Amino acid sequence: MVEKTSYCITYEFQFESGNIKKFNITLDPETITLVPKGSDPKPDWTKLEFHQCSCCTLEKELNPFCPIAVNIAEIVEEFKNEISSDQCTVICKTPERTYMKKATVQEGLFSIFGIVMATSNCPVMNFFKPMARFHLPFSTVEETIFRSSSIYLLRQYFEYKKGLIPDLELTKLDQHYEKVQKVNSGILDRTGHIAKKDADKNAIVILNALAQMLSFEISDNLNSLEYLFQK
User: Fold this and answer.
1) Residue 31, SS3?
2) Cβ 71 vs Cβ 34: under 8 Å
3) DSSP-H helix ranges across 89-195
4) What distance in Å separates the CA atoms of residue 105 and residue 89, rounded to the nearest whole number?
5) Residue 11 lies in domain
6) I need a surface site. Which of 79, 112, 160, 191 has the fewest CB within 10 A?
7) What is Dmax (Cα atoms) for the chain?
8) pTM over 0.85
9) What is the pLDDT along the chain (231 residues), one digit of tens a residue?
10) Does residue 2 form part of some domain?
């Protein structure tokens, strides 16, 4: 049996000034969970009870810190003085390929926040681990809708194989995205007390807007994608 190795993703932000910000993300190959970098002192705003998400099921006795906040802390601190509309070149390297895009800071942050939040062992965001394993940086709204709904339906196939009733109406997916919006709002409250400029905040706003769009598309029976399957 071939031993699975860690799945590593690197994000690099290159600014016109010559400044470079680089972040390494390492995922456990079995659990698709982000591997912690170390035990440095954690900022107070990462404590679980600091603007805890309204849908959070964690208890401070067992989880004194918010897992997402801990993992995005480095990124938030690095970009707290950046303006969302500033231009940069963002490079994302995965084991399979390299992606590069000239983008605004908020576009790059939206992408890296997405992968980190999905793999931080938040009870709500764990749902996105399969999609995180096949990370697609800088995804458009249509790509996100397609990937999210496709992966959910694949999940339902495996539920069917277990003898369970598959959710082909996507009812539970819609319900889950309602919780995701609450998590995004909670993280936005946290970072709003740290970030001096708007790059961090706007990246999370984009994530939340995507969650809202996905809920709308589900309620509209994914009609925007139906044209892809016409004969």
Assistant:
1) coil
2) yes
3) 105-118, 129-133, 141-161, 171-192
4) 9
5) 7-229
6) 160
7) 58
8) yes
9) 445 788 999 999 999 999 999 999 999 999 999 998 876 788 999 999 999 999 999 999 999 999 999 999 999 989 988 899 999 999 999 999 999 999 999 999 999 999 999 999 999 999 999 999 999 999 999 999 999 999 999 999 999 999 999 999 999 998 999 999 999 999 988 888 776 778 888 888 888 888 888 888 988 889 999 999 987
10) no
Instruction: Decide the pairing of beta strands 87-93 and 98-104.
Output: antiparallel
Does residue 99 lie within any of the structural domains?
Answer: yes
Alpha carbon distance 80, 217 (integer Å): 33
3-state SS assignment for residue 55: coil
- Give the whole-angstrom CA distance, residue 74 versus residue 181: 23
Q: Number of folded domains in the chain?
A: 1
